[in-house]
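Wed. Picked up where I left off yesterday with Sugar ABC transporter, permease protein, putative. The coffee machine is broken again, so keeping this brief.
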Amino acid sequence: MNAQLKMGWFEKHTQWLLLVPTVLLLLALTIYPLIYSLIAMLHTVNVRTGERTFVGLQNFVEIAKDTFFWNALKNTAIYTGVGVAIEFLIGLGLAVLLTSDIKGRGIFRSLLLSPMMLPPIVAAVIFKVMYIPDFGVLNWLLGLVGISGIVWESSADTALMSLIIVDVWEWTPFMFLILLAGLQAIPLDPYEAAEVDGANHWQIFRDITFPLLKPAILIALLLRIMDTLRIFDQVFIMTGGGPANATETMSMYIYRHAFRFSNVGYATALSFIMLILTTIVSNIFIARLKTEEVF
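Structure written out below (tokens, as returned):
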């Protein structure tokens, strides 16, 4: 009788029991680190001894006065704004071009997606070799047209742009892929009506294609902006944040405080600010996306 009761209990609660491993894993990987970080950002933490000293909001006061933080925030904003804008314009142009009936468009689509298949670290290493001032292929190509070699990563004037070029090369295919899917999902009826009314290509794009493509555009921009705001691997491999902090992004600055200076409390406070900024940006896009009609 007891065995039957136990069996009945397990059968009745099977769906909840199956969730237990997932819930435990979620607690271990997300909830606990979140609680720990909320505590750590209000303390100074001695990594060696594990001692914590409560300082309240002092870490945030120091951040507000930290010129290196504002420099990192500026670099991150430039990297995100310029990189995503270029990726969007090129991706949109390629998507519009390759939705038209041109010969070999399937091959072009496949080739365009190939950079996205590489791990970011591999792309960073490839471009680091290409950027070598004396032997890199980019300066060799510039020399063919009479332009003197550029010190890509070693100059504060060009270092950040050299990182943006890598990001554009690797992630424009991602933008292209989402926009292409959005274009192919647009119904043909509005285009047929516009042709009957005698609209030209620009009018069709402005009044039909772009408005109906807005949901895909917002999704593509949201995903890329959230990704570029936390850029770390390419910066770490190619410039390390230099020269003279010209390429130090928020993620790189947090890494430096957490793992080089062992200033865990300060790094956690920086991470919390980064989380707030990312959440604000994402909520703006999500709110805008909700107002768009999805066909």
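Quick read: Strands lie at 43-45, 52-54.
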